Amino acid sequence: MKMLRSMTATLAMLAFATLPVASASSQLRIEACTAGLGQPTAYEIRGGRTGFPFLLLTSFQRSNFPMSAIDPRDTRTLGVGLDLLALLVTAPFDASGGSKFQLPIPNDTSLAGKALLHRVLSYPGTTTTFGEFSNVLVVPLDAAGSWREDITKTMFNPRAWTSLIDEGDGNYLVAGGGSGALLALVSVDTSDRFDLATRTFTQGPKMSVERGVHTVSRLPGKKYLLAGGVDRLNDPQATCDLYDVSTQVFTSGAPMMDKRMAHSATELADGRVFVAGGLNDMSTTQAALVSALASTEIYDPVTNKWTKGPDMGEGKAGHAALRLPDGRVLLSGGLSWRSIFTVRVPTFSSVVEVYDPKNNTISRVNSMASDRAGHAAVLLASGKVLVAGGIGGSILVGGVATAACELYDAASGQWSATGSLPTAKALGALVQLGDGSPAWIGGAAGSFLAPLPLDDCASYDVASAKWTSLPKLMTARATHVAAMSDSCAVFAIGGATGASNAAVTTAETLIR
After folding, report:
1. Is the pLDDT of residue 412 over 80?
2. Is the pLDDT confidence value at 169 over 50?
3. Cβ–Cβ < 8 Å for 229, 235
4. Which of 161, 148, 36, 144 is CA-nearest to residue 474?
5. pLDDT band at residue 176, thresholds of 50, 70 and 90?
6. Sign (positive/negative) of CA torsion 498, 501, 505, 506?
7. Which of 68, 346, 362, 410 has the smallest set of CB atoms within 10 Å of its CB?
């Protein structure tokens, strides 16, 4: 009750009778870049109304505190607790409709493993006391420079070859995946929700079927498409699931025309999803290695229908797909096959093709210098594409991981060499750090059929064209998921580890 009175008093002080009513903003957002315990954290608020006031709330906990307790007309919940009202900040939005500031983080080791939660409330509203609410920003607290893993806070299922859905406000859904090697995966239909605020997992909703080595694509309206993959028998499938963040429910979507696993799915500028390649026969190792598809198809979320796209010049699986600034899709490398006297012979590819959604065509462009599959590709601020690592060479011996990296200039269509990774690897997780630098987290050395998960992490500096080693993971991981939060903290979840490639249930977080 004392906290409620304090909150109400704060609101009363803000009730400036001379202020006109502000229109609600739909873009109010807060982000930060934490530097760890004992260091200041830089905050930025965007999307407010110039000259109007806002409140910044800080808490150690989430809360469903009803705003109707303050204003009976307001049906929303606050989202953060009222335990740190002494840290409440009030200020006006600047000329850009935002605000930038720093807040000190105490150098108190007892805070390690906890998190600060922030939410911005704009004032005044149109029909309620407050206008727009920002996202809930989660700032993990830890010493900088090393990964933190809590082995008591784990997923309910071990997951490799899984997928990650950003639900917003520091919550992430890890869906599908399973245990076992690439050619013998036992997939699950379950999901686990990861809360960055507590770094704990709770059970999430089930998908319509089991799936692993599938794709996840963001659709308009806070919805996601999960396509294909393998079921619990390791058979490729055409089924799809649709996930609605607002309802937190999976529903069946229209199935694809072809069964696919290890394919690519790229979100187009108009909201559709372009799917290419993949393996469609996992009955035996030999059959799998020559089952890469050349077909493509396109999903329309408005009609919930798939239409056939143009065929690629070769079958591809485990390739990289990336949307270029002009809206085209770059398809590089992958596991492919060649026909020799009507017999299919598997091979790693250096072939690169481009899909143009404007005229629905695929054309071949200059090839990479190295053949590779299971590699990473990222769009740099310059518009160039960085391709890193992968497995190439002779597939007859399983191939070998490479450290070689290349840059693609879409304007000239040319490839050029750039700095190599500190460690040869494939099957890692690529994130972009707060300064825009690409970072490759984990991955695997060894061969395509016998990968050896690594704890190695590295980031790429565009100016020097060199990779720099980052702190090593606490658990070696490959085929895992990783992301950077709105507070610049990086986390990695699940994946395979050890010589047996056993799937794990743990997560770890890094503050640089």
Report:
1. yes
2. yes
3. no
4. 148
5. very high
6. positive
7. 68
Q: Is the dihedral of CA 90, 64, 242, 335 positive or negative?
A: positive
State the Cα angle at 274 between 403 and 327, rounded to 5°: 80
Spatial contact of 429 and 441, defined as CB atoms under 8 Å apart: yes
DSSP collapsed to 3 states, 219-258: ECCCEEEEECCECCCCCEECCEEEEECCCCEEEEECCCCC
Query: How is residue 196 annotated by DSSP?
Result: T
* C-alpha distances out from residue 33 to 39, 90, 164, Å: 11, 21, 22
Copy the structure tokens of residue 235. Answer: 């058979």
Q: What is the rounded distance in angstroms from the CA atom of residue 46 to the CA atom of residue 95?
A: 11
- Contact between residue 256 and residue 265 where contact means Cβ atoms under 8 Å apart: no
- Report the alpha-carbon distance of residue 139 to residue 34 in Å, rounded: 7
- Give the SS3 label for residue 209: coil
Work out the widest C-alpha separation in the chain, in whole angstroms: 85
The phi, psi pair for 161, rounded to 5°, reads 50, 45
What is the rounded distance in angstroms from the CA atom of residue 70 to the CA atom of residue 271? 39
Instruction: Enter the tokens of residue 233.
Output: 């028998």
Residue 223's beta-bridge partner residues? 219, 244
Residues 6+ apart with CB under 8 A from 239: 208, 209, 211, 228, 252, 255, 256
Partners of 147 in the beta sheet? Answer: 510
> What pTM was estimated for this model as a whole?
0.94
Instruction: Pick left, alpha or beta for residue 423 (phi over 0 → left; psi -120 to 50 → alpha; otherwise beta).
Output: beta
Question: So what's the pLDDT on residue 397?
Answer: 86
- Please name the residue that has the structure tokens 């799917």: 275
By residue count, the chain amounts to 512
| pLDDT at residue 7 in the model | 52
Q: What is the mean pLDDT of residues 103-116?
A: 95
| Peptide bond preceding 124 in cis form (omega within 30 of 0) | yes
Q: Would you state the structure tokens that stand for residue 59, as one six-digit string?
A: 């808490």
Share the mean pLDDT of the chain: 93
* Backbone φ, ψ for residue 249 (5° rounding): -130, 140
Element (H, E) at 8: helix 2-14
